[in-house]
Amino acid sequence: MSHASDTGRQDGGGWIGRSVPRVEDDRLLRGNGRYVDDIALPGAVEAAFLRSPHAHARIESIDVKAALEAPGVVAVWTGGDVADLPPLLNKEELRTPPGLAELLDPTVRMTPMPLLADDKVLYVGQPVAVVLAESRYLAEDALELLDVRYTPLPVLVDPEDALSPGAPLLHEELPDNTAVAVATRVGEPDAAFASAHTVVAERFEAHRYVASPIETRAVSAQVDPYSGGLTVWAGTQTPHRLRDAIAHTLALPADTVHVIAADVGGGFGQKGILYVEELLVPHAARRLGRPVRWREDRNENLTASSHAREQIHHIELAADAQGHLIGVRDRIMVNFGAYNMTGLVVPYNSLCHLLGPYRVPHVAVEVTGVLTNTTFATPYRGAGRPETVFAMERAMDRLAAELGIAPEELRARNLVGPDEMPYETGLVDRSGSPQSYDSGDFPELLRRAVAKADVEGVRARQRAGGGDGRRIGIGFAMYIEATGLGPFETARIDVAPTGRVRLSIGAPSQGQGHRTSMAQIAADAIGVPLDVIDVTGGDTEATPFGVGTIASRALVNAGNATHRAGLLVREKIIDAAARRLGVPADRLGLRDGVVAATEPGGPSMDLAELAGRAPLPGTPEPSDGRHGTELSETVHFRPPGFAVASGAHAAVVEVDEHTGVVEILHYVVVHDAGVIVNPMIAEGQVTGGVAQGIGGALYEEMVYGPDGQPRTGTYMDYLVPTSSEIPDLDMDELFTASPMNDLGVKGLGEGGAIAPQAVLANAVEDALRPFGVVVRRGPLSPSRVRDLIRTPAAGG
């Protein structure tokens, strides 16, 4: 991999900016990870779920007698057995911020999900019953003995069909199959389109695919026989929200529920929401008085864990004769699946990221979330941004073709400049505040991407022709990402008597390297070596208040909470040392864990000595009233607004017109995520995001038949790329510090996944321009590419 910066350090010193190897990797690579499935609970029973084979059906009866009599079965529950428990609602995700509600008055309809379907099923994979047995094998055997009688009902898979007049209702209590709806306008879009020199109108589709983390979902629970408290281990991105949901469901005080997100093998948003299994397993542990374990298999993960990405865009761009954008209109339809699990999160992310880095004075966007008989959809790495960037960047290329302007030049003419920052788009952001880009240099991102991609060299190769049927194409795509979603995150720092420092944060890790990057921030703030810091994340007892690791928010929120807590602890350390050493605090410094007088030859004391020396009995430690005697501090960081990250991708591809195979020859990433704490980790995050984006662009698709049956429910059918399909990345970066937080950081965990679908579609269309091809959807599999060449007017 090519990379423009060796160290990525922006401040010239300290731990922040160093490519420190991840401290967590040694343990994980040696097989010493502690995932949910690794946690042994003696005497545990195991759960297995019976899932609906129908996409839409009435449940007429369930006979459990034979299953109850099967060997090793402890209990069998159906919907009636848990009817006293409240249905599942992802309340925090469904909440509409007051500002957004007041300004735009969006429609958000609640669709509570029963913990086990008791009347009818709405998608293939919905849990209908649960068997609890002495082993998973015995539980699975008993599932086959359950006799469920269904009456099939009409099935809706296409969201446009679901909104047609007279369409059958998924939820009879709703007037139609609309889950959410919101619309907004800026300026006078209709007048802008009426006066435009050129208008392009297109229908683009973002296809459905899934997160597919290497570790599938899992949850275990047990009750402490002494305290009666409930401990839950879960592969979750939001342990505090899970704790609160369990407490609500089981009518328990929240402080009696302890949720631990141990090692989590990837989340990508799929593990950021609540699921019925996560509530039923703790309920079973309390009801049976025994530990209970459950983990899903790969087929369950592909068909019954949340899906993502499926959108339809009817987008129009209006421009003057020089290619300056004067208006954008878009009607967006989002397939929500059978339940509204996360409300406006994905639809509104798509709406307020549509304009990207471009200056557009007149805008009209409306978004509708539609209920269908498919697995429910929720955020997946990028959360509405890859879909809307696909539509906007594809439309930009169609406009460039219409005007006869090079795609990169059209983009350059429309970019917001660094001298315009902070830039207000006229839209309202996800929090309900006026949308503002806090910082960035979009033209420089594009300039670097164009230079690295060697546009002239690619065009020369195109002019030379592809006599062997291998055609070269180049594409560009740009994006912005509002990162650092609130409302807050927590960090607590404690100095132990040994001098070691414990940092506890509310945000768990699913592979992001928190134990390294957060320790770097703490080490700089306190003034101690990196190797004395221990980091714990995602434990609701260590940090009773927290939100989680979603929405590119952990570094901004938990990182700044850590920084502030570290500075306060540093102040306490120096204050305590001043009393011990008899030196005024303003004449002491703390470096590498040693407090020392600033004048030569003055006294000093290391942190272990200071923390380990307790006051004599009967003589409380003196205090100046500002600091207690404990060397600890807790901070809740609340961001004042979004830190906007941005990027430009370029791709050069070779398309074999005979086989339809797309090969990536060169992939360029230029990104801006503000101050980089650990360049090695940042590069890994961007690379992983690009890999998942390439998967969606070229390989992955969750396909449903018209009967609502998933046709890609195993890895035999659902194609995930391996390292062989992911090219080396040619990477560069800008460092425009965000003014929205003390550290100047921006989130980057999702950024790499946002542009690949758009940039590769643009590159493939460029390669196939002699055939008149228009790419309107993905994935660009060999068969789809061949179809495009044969019938280019169909556009996929």
Please tag this protein with its features:
27% helix, 796 residues, disordered N terminus, 7-stranded mixed β-sheet, 21 helices, alpha+beta, 6-stranded mixed β-sheet, globular, single chain
Please give a quick description of this structure:
The chain is of the alpha+beta class.
User: Rg, please?
Assistant: 28 Å
The rough form would be described as globular
Oligomer: single chain
How much helical structure, as a percent, in the residues?
25-40%
Distance between the termini: 33 Å
Number of helices: 21
User: Which blocks of ≥5 consecutive residues have pLDDT under 50?
Assistant: 1-12, 624-628
- Average pLDDT works out at 94
Q: Major sheet, described briefly?
A: 7 strands, mixed
Q: What amount of the residues lies in strands?
A: 15-25%
Structural class: alpha+beta
Count of individual beta strands: 30
* Sequence of strands across the biggest β-sheet: 4-7-2-14-11-12-13
